[in-house]
Amino acid sequence: MSATTVIRGVSLIDGSGAAPVTDATVVVTDGRIAAAGRAIAIPSGARVIEGLGMTVVPGFIDAHAHMLAYAFNLEKRLTTHATLVAFRSMSNLRTTLEAGVTTVRDAGGIDAGFRLALEEGLVVGPRLLVSGQGLAPTGALFDFHWGSGAQVDLRDMVTGVRQYVNGVENVRLFARQLLLSGVDVIKIVSTGSIFQRTGYPPRAQYSAAELDAIVYEAHAAGKKVMCHAEGGPGVTAALRAGVDSIEHGFYLEDSEIELMLKQGTYLVPTLSAAEAVIGQGAKDPSVHDWAVNNAKALLDDPRLGFGRALKAGVKIAMGSDIFGANHGDNLAELAAMVRHGMTPARAIRAATSDAADLLDLGAEVGTLAAGKRADLVVIDGDPLADITILQDRARLRLIMRDGVIHKDTLMSAA
Asked: What's the rounded Cα separation, in Å, for the pair 67 and 49?
């Protein structure tokens, strides 16, 4: 088979925010884009794929997802063998790639071994950046204490999403251990969750000194810090410590938006997480009513930080917060962002070039430009006219990562 593949006759959305180019051609050679645009010559001997009526976009980037195969139900999570979780996670990786997502930043649970398995070709899935088990203080999100006096200690849980660590020197040590393990980013928790019984404002967590120590260690190692921060004083504390992205940020004060603009901090809004909680609650009785009610209230709350951050010009990258039974629904996040005020073109940029910038991958992926890695998706239809078509996986007709085609219903149709 030829090392060169050509996709022609497509409408090209290059991910930069530029206007689409009609009747475009994309040339892929040895895993990279050799050319993309109009009136491009087709190399002799190339494999040619006709894309008339289709749209080609860069492979999508999900900056906040959970590839670990865990359920909402605590008992299921505690009683599922770690090896079985690993195999289910491999299935989740393949499902995610088949949903058009070619790069994922995992937000807790997956370790560097999964990334290495993907790089060695042992597993099929998106390019993967990992955070390992994130740092949170005792009593933080998912640290379970019961009225009976019983405690579920998750610290040694191989398939857990975070470690509960307290005190400046302890968080410094654990951050160094995470970095030594080969993580690509450090994940921390600075607030509780609005999906908990207490709702808004979520309680602030970690002291300023603890946050400073974690961020210092990460930045000293050349790594970024992603911070679970949903609202309240914990958001301000995280920003003052210098985190690189606020994950969720459902409620943001004007002063916090100003600080994000000044520091260039990204917002990864995960708006579809509320919709996922509502949808899962309709199917799973273990999802508490108060979590579902809090999710519904969030969707209708005019104080929602996303719209104000968008209007102010805060940098925004797409993150789905996908987990549980929802793997493959990552691109529902783009539709959620559009419903809350973002244009389809801007949403696609948030899931391509902007997300690549946040992940420090802008030189390699995020746009369809000569020299970049050949990560792309060919779509049946125009996502600028209807962003929801991205959620119909049957309309994702071709998916390529690093020049390797993982799905192709265009050739079979021809």
From this structure: 32
Q: Which contacts qualify for 19-25: CB closer than 8 Å, 24 or more apart?
A: 20/55, 20/384, 24/56
CA angle centred on 170, ends 204 and 211, rounded to 5°: 35
Rg of the chain on CA atoms, in Å: 21
Averages of pLDDT over runs of 10 residues in the chain (414 residues) are 86 97 97 96 93 96 91 77 90 96 95 95 97 90 73 73 92 97 97 83 93 98 97 96 97 96 98 86 78 84 89 98 89 96 98 98 98 98 98 97 95 61
pTM of the model: 0.95
Q: In whole angstroms, how far apart are CA 21 and each of 8, 37, 86, 245, 334?
A: 12, 7, 42, 32, 21
Helices (H), ranges, 300-340: 305-312, 332-339
User: Could you tell me which residues come within 8 angstroms of residue 160 by beta carbon, excluding any fewer than 6 positions away?
Assistant: 109, 133, 154
- State how far the Cα of 123 lies from the Cα of 114, in Å rounded to an integer: 8
Start-to-end Cα distance in the chain: 18
Which three-class secondary structure state does DSSP give residue 333?
Answer: helix
Q: How far is CA 213 from the centre of its chain?
A: 25
From the list 33, 11, 128, 61, the residue with the least C-alpha distance to 348 is: 61
Q: How far is CA 134 from the centre of its chain?
A: 15
Q: Burial code of 379-395, b = ≥16 C-beta within 10 A, e = fewer?
A: bbbbbbeebebbbeeeb
Question: Parallel, antiparallel, or unpaired for β 4-12 and 47-50?
Answer: parallel
Q: Scanning the structure block, which residue is given the tokens 């746009």? A: 367
User: Residue 82 in contact with residue 159, Cβ under 8 Å?
Assistant: yes
- Residue among 227, 223, 224, 221 at smallest CA distance from 206: 227
Query: What span, in angstroms and rounded, lies between the C-alpha atoms of 58 and 80?
Result: 36
278: tokens are 């509502």
